[in-house]
Every structure is written in C-alpha cells, then in structure tokens.
Write a structure and sequence with these properties.
With about 190 residues, this protein is an alpha+beta fold. It is built from four helices and eleven strands. A five-stranded antiparallel beta sheet has the order 1-2-5-6-9, with helices on one face. It is globular.
Length: about 190
Amino acid sequence: MTPPSSSSVLLATQAMGTRFEIVLHGEDEGRLRAVGEEAVRAIEHWHGRLSRFMPESDVSRLNRDSGARVGDDLRDLLDVCDEVRLASRGAFDPRIGPERCLDLGAVGKGWALDQAAAIVLEHGLTTALLHGGGSSVVAIGAPANAEGWPIAIRSDGEALRVLLHDQALGVSAPRGRVDACGVTHIV
C-alpha cells in the first residue's frame, strides 16, 4: 500500500500594515486550502476590528469615544493589555502619542494569529506555520522529518536559530520577513 502523499498550501493576505502568511501541511490539498481560507478570513476580520487606520474599526471608534460599545472578545483583549501594562509598570502600553490613542499593533497581529491558529487546530490540522510580517509567528507541530519549524532571527549581522514546535514567537525589529519555507528573517 502506498502511503498518502503530503501536500503544502501557502495562503497570504495583507492586513494590519503587513503581509500575513499561512503554510499548511497535510494529505488533502483541497481541505488544507479550505481551512487556510477560513483562517485568512479570521485575520481579515480582526484587521477590520483592530486597525486604528480603518475609520469604522472598533479601535477607531474607541479612539473617538472611549465609551463606545465593543464585543466581549475585544473587551477581553483590552483587559489583557491593561494587565500587562500594569505588570510591566507601563513599559507596555497600547496607548500611544500625546492623544493616548489606542494602537494594538503587534498585540493585534498576535491576537489575529491566535484566532487563525485556533481555526487550524479546530479542523484537526497538526502541521502549520502562521506569521504576521515575520515578527509574530505561531508554529503548530513541525514539518515532516523535522523537530520544529526553523526560525532564524537576525540582528546586527548575528543570527540566532531556533526551532518552534507548538510555540509562538514575537520579536521587535525594524524590519522582518518569513519566507515560504517558514524561515524568519529579522533585520
């Protein structure tokens, strides 16, 4: 009996000012594509709610009116942000500038990736890499015959290589990208 062949699907979208990519591995390319498209829609959904650059987003509405009504899911995210702000003694603060505008930036990217990863897992997929601009990465499982997804973090000419397996990574850098093989390049 011939073992089932493995397929890979790469899907991408532009959201939150960066390129998001999802790499899925499995046996059924059609199923992978359908799950990936659902995950991409989740990222786009959160872009529409979290971007301060979209006038009708929840974040923009909160910036115009701090008493604006938002869903419980966003309220939960804002509560986590407030807990981290307090625990970090203000080193992390989702409010920026003199006007103290709410800007979820990297937190929003991570949130959107978490929601997309949850969809991938709900559909029973066990091998995927999701990233937003290379600075926010979620690894599910590992590619065949590998211990994890290879991630290279580069800074000032130095490279740190890590393998992610059922883990997430967030880095802060002026520029970053993840190539189609799942290798993160942070400059």
